[in-house]
Amino acid sequence: MSHSRQEVVQTLLDTGVVAVVRVDEPTELPRLARARRPSQPPNDTSTSHNFGVAVLPGCLTPTEIVAAWSAGADVIKLFPGRVATPGYFSDLKGPFPSIKLMPTGNVDRKTAPEYIKAGAVAVGVGKALVDPAALHAGDWAQIIENARDFRALVDEARGTVR
Q1: What span, in angstroms and rounded, lies between the C-alpha atoms of 18 and 15?
Q2: What is the pTM of this model?
Q3: Do 40 and 64 touch, CB atoms closer than 8 A?
Q4: What is the largest CA-CA distance in the chain?
Q5: Distance between CA atoms of residues 130 and 139, nearest Å
């Protein structure tokens, strides 16, 4: 079965994945979340919000999380996953129950449901979802299957069925 790039992109977006796209103007990304580099603090979220673009800065420490949330971030990407384990994530949700957190980096089929059960609003999955070898080979069926698998894991962890 052959899949077009558009089908793959749509499947990834339906799964909640945002592919990184380089553009010069935020108007080129309507309704698509713009992720910032982990080291780039959200000084001014109003420009992104004026274009209807979500702001998802990467943070690790409680101080960074509070600063980003106070600056108007929509979701905080907890990064890196090797440090921000599901246990660390759960510990942060205690003092910050209303802050929307999303782990990124080192998220896989085992940890994705653990993060969701710990209160994550989403999970950021990289190589475990879009395997570099499959991407290089143009194996869109494998990438789509991975996306569907992750979606099912997240739905099961949330107790929802699609």
Answers
A1: 9
A2: 0.74
A3: no
A4: 49
A5: 10
